[in-house]
Hints:
two-stranded antiparallel sheet, 10 helices, 4% strand, globular
Amino acid sequence: MDAITALASDPAAWAALLTLVVMEVVLGIDNLIFISILTNKLPESMRARARAVGLSGALLMRIALLFTLSSLAALKDPVISLFSHGFSWRDIILVAGGLFLLYKATSEINHAAEPSHGEGDNKPQVGKSLGFAAAIAQILMLDLVFSIDSILTAVGMTDHLPIMIVAVLIAVFLMFVASGPISAFISRHPSIVMLALGFLLMIGVVLVAEGFGAHIEKGYIYAAMAFAGFVEALQMFARGRAKKAGDSH
Length: 249
């Protein structure tokens, strides 16, 4: 208790907490996009529950990993060697998660590019319908990959476990609050769906590259994502203006 009180009165601890919260939220964006796309394939009555279960799984995995910091260090030790390169468990998990993300994003893009049929199909539907259990299983699978990446980043920024736990709690709460509006927005705009799938493709490539030892600065990745989002926002604005002009004539 004395240690926690000392941390609460330390300005450096608060600065570390704020930095970690921002970092965790940024690192959670790709996780949130994946959850939003996957849950949008469920019946509307199940979506909120699936998002809650998926984000709860992400929170529990992050907390569990924080309490096994000694095991996390061991994840970086090489366990196999291929092509004169040593692969740790972290590398293997990143490569597997990246390949899964590439497969999912590619299959969703291929399905969305197919012509839609049937009455009322005025916009492409992403992916086939998905069962609740299958959606949760896939979300939890990617939660593990993103959680390991997130916690290893947090461990590199501070040595204080309470700060890391509070940062994770705040970040996941913010993700939970944002998950509903983001899912609804993605569902209403097919072009945003394709953009989000493109983001997931890029994240999948980054995960595989990092698993093979090629470090890619994530700041460049998120800057590219932000710029693409800005361009898409301009296109949506232009389409809205054109539609209003057409309706007025």
